[in-house]
Design goal:
mainly alpha
């Protein structure tokens, strides 16, 4: 009986410690990430015998590793680049930072697939960490439940399944969201570094430059610092262009090779007439986001508008759901609406979860890659 107060005190200390830990954004990011990963592996492993694998064996990553279904389509190409470099000219449209990091990690981990997944999963956790911070700051959220609910709108975005595979999505999301967050906090040097790396990861990393610059202008940062940020943010893509100039005698080779993948060959309306209903769904969401934010936050409206430029300039909708995953204005819009209309959130989560599962099964089977 004499030890009972001590036990109660220790239990209370442990309880307080756990409650404090749950307030940490990184812990919340892990709490969101782990169930998503477990569900994805359960549903995707050997496609869970639900649908047969595609007959197009070129769409599949061939390995004895039971996680091979996470490296189909472009996922296999990134692993190939990590292993052999740019062995063919037509591969240069795949930007270098992600396969380069995989190659470095492979020095410690013998499997290229496991190295790629480690990079993607770690980046995904980091992306969730920054997204949690963004919604807290942008919407002034104070309760953990609201912060998690707001973040789930992005974590369960249908094409978010590609952040679990050997695609650039997770790494790019980590860098883009980090740049977004640091810009909101006026930490322009950190934002600049994030954007620089993002432009070495994907061509649409350049979208982050006007986003960051406009936020910094809104925050009334010194104009010289903003010019510095804009200038150095481009060094990622400029470095890659220099590499292409030296090795392929054309700094814009990554644009030329896009034609091999069907881009820059047709008009927007031709691409629109031949695209799927699924792509039209994502196109509609982007347009709604532009209209919604135009009255509330023109910076986010412009950012969404940049994603609309992809099919307009490219004349194709290939991978459009993956591109819209990086249009963070969309889940932010849905949460903003949900604060006044709770049913919008519930309906969206149901629809997103169903589409997320559908895309996962199709990707695991090798039927789609974006």
């Amino acid at each position: 009986m004499l030890h009972q107060p001590k036990i109660k005190n220790r239990l209370q200390i442990f309880k307080n410690h756990c409650q404090q830990l749950l307030k940490e954004d990184l812990v919340l990011a892990l709490i969101i990430f782990l169930p998503i990963l477990i569900i994805a592996i359960f549903l995707g492993y050997e496609n869970n015998q639900i649908i047969p694998l595609t007959s197009q064996i070129g769409n599949l990553y061939h390995s004895k590793n039971y996680l091979k279904f996470l490296a189909n389509w472009d996922g296999a190409i990134y692993l190939q680049i990590a292993k052999f470099g740019y062995s063919h000219f037509y591969l240069v449209n795949f930007f270098p930072l992600y396969p380069l990091i995989i190659k470095l990690i492979h020095q410690l981990i013998p499997s290229y697939l496991n190295s790629g997944l480690l990079v993607s999963w770690t980046s995904y956790i980091g992306a969730l960490y920054f997204y949690l911070k963004i919604v807290k700051n942008y919407f002034k959220l104070t309760t953990q439940s609201d912060i998690v609910k707001a973040t789930l709108l992005w974590a369960l975005f249908p094409s978010a399944i590609f952040m679990l595979g050997t695609f650039t999505e997770a790494l790019f999301a980590f860098l883009a969201l980090g740049a977004f967050y640091f810009s909101l906090k006026n930490q322009y040097i950190k934002a600049t570094i994030m954007i620089l790396l993002a432009t070495a990861t994907r061509i649409n990393g350049i979208f982050l430059i006007p986003l960051s610059a406009l936020i910094l202008i809104k925050n009334k940062l010194n104009i010289k610092k903003i010019i510095f940020s804009i200038t150095f943010s481009t060094f990622g893509v400029l470095s890659y262009m220099l590499y292409l100039k030296i090795n392929y005698h054309n700094g814009l080779a990554f644009l030329i090779t896009q034609r091999n993948h069907g881009w820059l060959q047709n008009s927007f309306f031709n691409g629109l007439s031949n695209t799927s209903i699924f792509n039209l769904f994502f196109l509609a969401i982007v347009i709604i986001s532009i209209i919604y934010w135009y009255q509330k936050d023109k910076i986010l409206a412009l950012y969404s508008c940049l994603f609309l430029m992809i099919p307009i300039i490219g004349g194709k909708f290939g991978g459009f759901p993956r591109y819209t995953l990086m249009d963070f204005a969309i889940p932010l819009m849905i949460w903003s609406i949900s604060q006044k209309k709770a049913w919008v959130y519930n309906l969206t989560i149901i629809i997103f979860s169903m589409l997320w599962t559908y895309l996962l099964m199709q990707y695991a089977g090798g039927y789609i890659g974006g």
